[in-house]
């Protein structure tokens, strides 16, 4: 029996178009703890010293707010080519044929649109950058953990990411949010049932519980409102503290995301009770402020090719 095609290993970065560009730069640099690894006029790439990925966030100044693209890592250039062939055979719209990338680290990738019109990049052979282990109490992001997207077409989106990117369903939260994995990490992508397509939240892994709390405290001391948290989810078993960036996108500090048996895990469905949403009980039930924030504004960059 032929093994299923599973080209993706992890999420590389999220690229966002933002109207409030200067404020976003200040937020990432002074508060969130990322470092600028490259920039140009109205364009910047943000990484972490603990991650071999060249960057985990890309910001581009634009009058319209939205997702420029979400980038995933593939195991090999051959997998990128095979993915492209499968996309074409499935009448999936390509934005760029497989070829060399001219972003930091280079590599070989393909770009295409998911059923909602979000631009997706899958790439291989991106050169890693030097990295180091974070030290104790160093409260900056270790890596990009996962990305959650709101969609009015949840079942179609789930099927697309299963069929083409080879992601597997890990768990459901009620019937409104599904968690999808590429390997043993509980999820790299979440899909939430929404009225429109938009960023639900972007999540960053911290070194440990202490660093997660110190990072959350740093934002609170700087006057940032915590939308929800600190707490610990049941689905994923990870900690959470949610904040808004200057463009109204929800960002999460997290740590200790559950590791599952990739081959044998059976999907579970968790209820929406407060004690399920937050095991600790400190963050409590999801707040109305958080619900409104994670609904976000309708994405204005759907079905649009990224200029970078």
From TrEMBL:
GO terms for molecular function: dioxygenase activity. Coiled coil: none annotated. The keyword Electron transport does not apply. Residues 10-125, 143-256 form the VOC domain. Gene3D superfamilies: 2,3-Dihydroxybiphenyl 1,2-Dioxygenase, domain 1. Keywords: Dioxygenase, Oxidoreductase. It holds the Pfam family Glyoxalase. This is Catechol-2,3-dioxygenase. It comes from Raineyella antarctica. The lineage of its organism: Bacteria, Bacillati, Actinomycetota, Actinomycetes, Propionibacteriales.
């Amino acid at each position: 029996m032929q093994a299923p095609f599973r080209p993706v290993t992890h999420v590389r970065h999220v690229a966002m178009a933002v109207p409030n560009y200067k404020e976003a730069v200040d937020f990432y640099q002074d508060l969130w703890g990322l470092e600028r690894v490259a920039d140009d006029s109205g364009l910047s790439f943000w990484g972490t010293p603990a991650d071999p990925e060249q960057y985990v966030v890309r910001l581009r100044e634009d009058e319209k707010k939205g997702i420029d693209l979400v980038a995933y890592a593939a195991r090999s250039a051959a997998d990128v080519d095979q993915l492209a062939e499968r996309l074409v055979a499935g009448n999936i719209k390509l934005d760029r044929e497989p070829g060399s990338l001219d972003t930091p680290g280079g590599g070989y990738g393909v770009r295409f649109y998911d059923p909602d019109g979000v631009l997706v990049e899958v790439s291989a052979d991106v050169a890693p950058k030097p990295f180091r282990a974070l030290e104790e109490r160093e409260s900056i992001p270790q890596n990009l953990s996962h990305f959650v997207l709101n969609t009015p077409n949840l079942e179609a989106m789930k099927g697309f990411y299963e069929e083409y990117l080879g992601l597997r369903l890990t768990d459901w939260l009620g019937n409104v949010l599904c968690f999808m994995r590429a390997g043993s990490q509980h999820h790299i992508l979440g899909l939430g049932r929404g009225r429109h397509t938009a960023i639900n939240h972007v999540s960053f892994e911290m070194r440990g519980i202490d660093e997660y709390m110190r990072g959350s405290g740093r934002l609170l001391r700087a006057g940032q409102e915590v939308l929800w948290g600190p707490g610990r989810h049941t689905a994923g078993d990870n900690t959470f503290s949610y904040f808004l960036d200057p463009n109204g996108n929800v960002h999460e500090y997290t740590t200790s995301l559950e590791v599952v048996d990739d081959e044998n895990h059976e999907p579970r469905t968790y209820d929406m009770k407060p004690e399920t949403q937050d095991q600790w009980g400190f963050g409590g039930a999801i707040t109305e402020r958080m619900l409104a924030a994670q609904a976000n504004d309708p994405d204005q960059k759907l079905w649009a090719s990224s200029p970078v």
